[in-house]
């Protein structure tokens, strides 16, 4: 749960919409669309969102066959 202590060396110690912050050992909420993120932190965005240029955005659409 967000705000609860966690162990960053163990995957899954936080609920699905949170990650374990290794510096504070606390569960923090994943960023939603349009919210800031840090590209160097890996997965910091909610669901299928990706961190691009410091903000969580939808990924590029797949190519369309003609």
Topology at a glance:
Elements: E1 18-21, E2 26-29, E3 50-52, E4 55-57
Antiparallel strand pairs: 1-2, 3-4
Task: List the keywords.
66 residues, mainly beta, two-stranded antiparallel sheet, 21% strand
If you had to describe this structure to a student in words, what would you say it looks like?
This protein has 66 residues and is mainly β. Helix content is 0%, strand content 21%. The protein has strands at 18-21, 26-29, 50-52, 55-57. The strands form 2 sheets. The protein has a two-stranded antiparallel ribbon. The protein has a two-stranded antiparallel sheet with strand order 3-4. β3 and β4 (55-57) form a beta hairpin. The model has no long low-confidence stretch (mean pLDDT 85).
